[in-house]
Amino acid sequence: MQHITFYYDPISPYAYLAFQQLPRSLQGLNYSVCYVPILFAGLLKSHGQLGPAEIPPKRDWTYRHVLWQAKHLDIPFQMPSAHPFNPLPLLRLAIAAGRLQTNGVSSTNRFITEKIFYHVWHPNESDSNNHHASHDAADSERLEQLAKQLMPSATSFNNAAVKERLKFNTDQALQAGLFGVPSFVVDQKVFWGLDSLPMLREYMTGNAWFDAADGWSSVARVGVGIKRLPATA
After folding, report:
1. Nearest to 79 by CA among 51, 104, 103, 59
2. CA distance 63 to 57
3. What is the dihedral angle through the alpha carbons of 231, 174, 139, 163, rounded to the nearest 10 degrees?
4. Are 119 and 126 in contact (CB under 8 A)?
5. Helix (H, G, I), strand (E, B), or coil: what is residue 162?
6. Which are the contacts of 76, defined by CB distance < 8 A and separation ≥ 6?
7. Whole-structure pTM value
8. Contact criterion met (CB below 8 Å) for 96 and 162
9. For 183, how many CA atoms within 13 A lie in the half-sphere containing its CB?
10. How far apart are CA 43 and CA 182, in angstroms?
11. Which of 193, 199, 186, 97 is closest to 148 using CA atoms?
């Protein structure tokens, strides 16, 4: 059985769509999945990048694209009332409600991951027993209700231990070579984005390209022709 580590941040609409699409894309294959919450902003900071929503024209395109992708893939989808938002409370809740792996990484099962994603991107499902006028992913009342569903006996998920575990997850993701979410890691190979799912399936079914001289590893032979100079005042 092949094992997939699915790295996600609920702030990413592509991560939600990939979560929904993954079982369809890998239908008929024998595999297991470990869902690992990480801070997307931590990846961006480490690589010196802006997020898609921080570039106004790219922000508009991203929202249009994910609305189209959801329609095309027939996945229930609704934009939250404000985006981007602070995902830290949701990420910490995911960590606290999940489980600690033997390698120190904190993961969530599919049920918890689904609830976290639904809170942001499928509110009709997540709030079926809790009617709110606002679909605000950072709304404190909605977060409180979600926390009661996922960890009813807990009093807080905002403690130092949980924060440290989220940082550890993000650091491990960087060490694995991640630069964005969603990312899928199989056999130390990183597949990034919703549109990488067909490629992931081909790898898992043994496509010879991945071992060919002009395949996966051939990109290491491509040199850097020019580097952009840092911006000056």
Report:
1. 59
2. 10
3. -120
4. yes
5. helix
6. 70, 122, 124, 125
7. 0.94
8. yes
9. 21
10. 12
11. 97
Q: Closest by alpha carbon to 6, among 137, 120, 157, 117?
A: 117
Residues in the chain: 233
| Sequence-separated (6 or more) residues with CB below 8 Å from residue 5 | 33, 34, 36, 176, 184, 185, 186
Q: For residue 173, which of 35, 20, 10 has the smallest C-alpha distance?
A: 35
- Round the average pLDDT of the chain to a whole number and report it: 94
Q: 72 is written with which tokens?
A: 């095309």
Q: How far is CA 188 from CA 2, 42, 101, in A?
A: 12, 20, 18
Question: In the structure encoding, which two tokens stand for residue 194, read together?
Answer: 């919703």
pLDDT digits (tens, 9 = 90+) for 130-173: 544 569 999 999 999 999 999 877 667 888 999 999 999 999 99
